UniProtKB/TrEMBL annotation:
CDD domains in UniProt: Rab
Protein name stated in the entry: GTP-binding protein
UniProt xrefs under Pfam families: Ras
Organism this protein belongs to: Hassallia byssoidea VB512170
Key words of the record: GTP-binding, Nucleotide-binding
Keyword Lipid biosynthesis among record annotations: no
GO MF annotation: an example: GTP binding
Classification via SUPFAM superfamilies: P-loop containing nucleoside triphosphate hydrolases
PANTHER family in alphabetical order: RAS-RELATED PROTEIN RAB (PTHR47977)
Length: 165
């Protein structure tokens, strides 16, 4: 079985921990849980007749006061940049994080995850912006950790990208 380290990065409170909990344990909690440092979970993903053991590194959210320790990223096979669709500033943070991740560990597969799609009426990110990101060649998937929409798809898509890399 292939082991693959996957990092979850993004601004604080974008839903990184909730996405991991939904994917690994099929649960969602309304209670906000701040990640301190890094939280590590595992899940086996079956793809292309292979089993990948995903080691999921849920890194604490970045804000103005706390920068993600880039050393946590070393050894990653892929990463998810999680954005809260209801907070436009988390998209700007995602762009700077992606640049810093690439400068640190090089080009590896990643997906931009637009989370909180269950709150579409509160979204601050426009369809035209999403289309422009896709034009850059980025893979963008809308998810909801609450309803489960797109959660499996994100990890399956990343698994495929890793196997193709």
């Amino acid at each position: 079985m292939l082991q693959k380290k996957i990092c979850m990065v993004g601004a604080f409170a974008t839903g990184k921990t909730s996405l991991v909990a939904k994917f690994v344990y099929s649960i969602f909690s309304e209670t906000y849980q701040t990640t301190v440092g890094v939280k590590i979970d595992k899940k086996v993903v079956k793809i292309q007749d292979k089993e990948l053991n995903f080691i999921l590194w849920d890194l604490y959210g970045e804000d103005e006061f706390q920068k993600v320790r880039l050393s946590y990223l070393r050894g990653s096979s892929g990463y998810l940049i999680v954005v809260d669709g209801t907070r436009h500033n988390t998209l700007e943070k995602a762009f700077s994080l992606q640049t810093r991740v690439e400068e640190t560990i090089g080009q590896i597969p990643f997906i931009l995850v637009l989370n909180k799609s269950d709150l579409l009426d509160e979204w601050e990110i426009e369809t035209a912006e999403i289309d422009a990101i896709i034009q850059r060649g980025w893979t963008v998937i809308k998810t909801s950790a609450k309803t489960g929409l797109g959660v499996e798809e994100v990890f399956q898509t990343l698994a495929n990208k890793i196997l193709e890399a």
